[in-house]
């Protein structure tokens, strides 16, 4: 027992004395959170919009006022020539333009309908569509304000609510994904590297020729990384709550327990890799290519799984991060209890036991 | 009973293509300082790894302290000390941390066996807070020896402990081994340096995985079967080619500034004759002396015979 404690303490020395490991361990989650939270967002904000108001009447002013007051657009009214719009598009200074023709107010109030033109930069179709939607909904709102009595007798009025994420905060979807990704990288890569390092440095020879049980080497390697990964998990949670305004709806305890399960699975994968390789580079490459890529692609936080061809959907079932992602989403964002995630938990437990079993069974008590 | 027994051990690598250890048999008595002498790639490390239970032999049996290296490997691991050829301690841990770690790993404390390592450890104690990776080569070896000794092993395996260490540290290291021998520890050491062979009680000469001779260094030297001469002249290269082309020459090779030479079937050549003969052939500044063979001479002779 004392041997194990001393061994674990030694592992912590290794981690805290190696700047690279520390950087991967605690720099990576911060970088990921910042990247996904602020840079890689799918929300469309701050669109540069050119408004050419040729009408200059009360109604056109009211409409532009409404557009300006929404958070989506940065408006530019300095352009007056229609031909300058394309120039601005080509230079990239504007992504859409709204042209209100002369006589807009008159047409609207007396003619019953008034045309406006919306031009968007179609080279980015997703943004273009979103922009059109934003503008049309602002106009519809203004139009309803004007006509006090509904012109139609039968009106379907959709009442929209985005459940579990009312303000449409894009962070909510990727936080569980980032958690899965970071834990996967930290646990799998660092654990496998730490075992292989002993082989590479030759210390494994001494460890084997000692009364210390070879299997305990694995245990002693796994425990520090379990603790550090848990710290990492709490760091991500802390960052998401205080930096990205994500509220944790479910029980923190359940969240921690499920994460422990996932971390243990990742550790087992790491140990499995370390058994089969003899150089740190190979171990790192294997855990990065073999773990990180499938985690990014098949977890469902970047690319929806439902859109994938069936074979890929089947493959996604063997990626542990996929199940963890489902659990975290359910517990953290929807506030569901264990009763709703027991199936996923069971799958993850099965994966953990299988990999841990393989890792322990393949551990060599000799050099080759 | 012998402390270490190798009985017809064979070990190959890469599915039998490379034979590292070829039918090796030898015994080491308790309390003996035994040397395994041979050049790089002779199979020394493989023998050590088989004895320390790190490798499985293909053929033959090996035992340490009466325990079989394959079946009772756990007993052996509890009782021996092993210092691999490469520096194998934690470079990012300090000297004191390394020692403490290995002491605890072997279920003992530094205090308990301090007397055993005292003489060695005192020398590196001033650096006990330095990281092991920042030590000099000699100090690294001393620390590694301390770590291998801290649990008072019954048999100590040292694989090339003096390779890459300066001459002074090598001398010190051997002095330490003599002290440890006084404490009754069986020591098996390997080295590629022939001059270290005479410091062992008994040696085995190993070449290409085969044991060529096992005996005390003195006996190996005494059984050198031919007269050995050391020759030098102004033009050493011409001397070498001349001698090698002479049909009477059995072997001739450079040895420092001299050439060592033996002849076929001239049991009583004397140095005087040899010198005159060489001067007749136009060599200048010729010096000839009859010498006693060294381990290296024996090694080269055995190697050529094989």
UniProtKB/TrEMBL annotation, chain B:
Pfam families reported in the protein's UniProt record: ABC_tran
Lineage top rank: taxon: Bacteria
Keywords: ATP-binding, Nodulation, Nucleotide-binding, Transport
GO molecular function: ATP binding; ATP hydrolysis activity
UniProt organism field: Chitinophaga solisilvae
PANTHER family per record: ABC TRANSPORTER ATP-BINDING PROTEIN, ABC TRANSPORTER ATP-BINDING PROTEIN NATA
Family (UniProt): Belongs to the ABC transporter superfamily.
Signal peptide range in chain numbering: none
Protein's name in the database: ABC transporter ATP-binding protein
